[in-house]
Amino acid sequence: MGKVSIIVAISGNGGIGFENKLLYWLPNDLKRFKALTTGHTIIMGRKTFESLPKGALPNRRNLVLSRQEGLQIENAEVYPTLEEALSQCKDEDCFIIGGASVYAQALPLADRLFITEVDDTTKEADTFFPEIDKETWKVVAREDFPTDEKHAYPYSFVDYERR
Questions:
Q1: Which of 35, 75, 146, 154 sits between 20 and 30 A of 28, alpha carbons compared?
Q2: Does the predicted model carry a pTM greater than 0.70?
Q3: With b meaning 16 or more CB within 10 Å and e meaning fewer, what string describes 15-24?
Q4: How far is it, in rounded angstroms, from Cα 8 to Cα 133?
């Protein structure tokens, strides 16, 4: 199997979403997401898939996790478990793109984390990312960015690899 990566934007208090929507609209984070995941397989829960404004993301193999029997989704493959979805990813790199329960299941299996840390704790969140254990993960790259006309909060791109 190829590498399993998690990609997510996290607020300063671990929040990743509210009412099935992203907490932040950060154009550079969205560009990074597209650059990293295009041409690869992405795996997500059904609610995350339903939150996508135009359905399956183009130029990516979309795998959706759902226990709903017989569920069919246009331009996506549906699997009942993360393990079953990962078993379909022979030698390809896969990106786990949410939601919270899928991240929690994938964290022990992941090789890399691509985290956008948003320097903010004011946004209300109802979904959170699991704690990143510094004994398990080491930072291999970090880029910090200030606020600007398109980004209301300072943020950092932080890449981790398993120790």
A1: 75
A2: yes
A3: bbbeeeebbb
A4: 16
* Per-residue confidence in pLDDT tens, the chain, 163 aa: 789 999 999 999 999 999 999 999 999 999 999 999 999 999 999 999 999 999 999 999 999 999 999 999 999 999 999 999 999 998 899 999 999 999 999 999 999 999 999 999 999 999 999 999 999 999 999 999 999 999 999 999 999 999 9
Q: How many CB atoms lie within 10 A of CB 6?
A: 25
Domain extent at residue 107: 4-162
Report the CATH number that the domain containing residue 111 is assigned in CATH: 3.40.430.10
Q: How many domains does the chain have?
A: 1
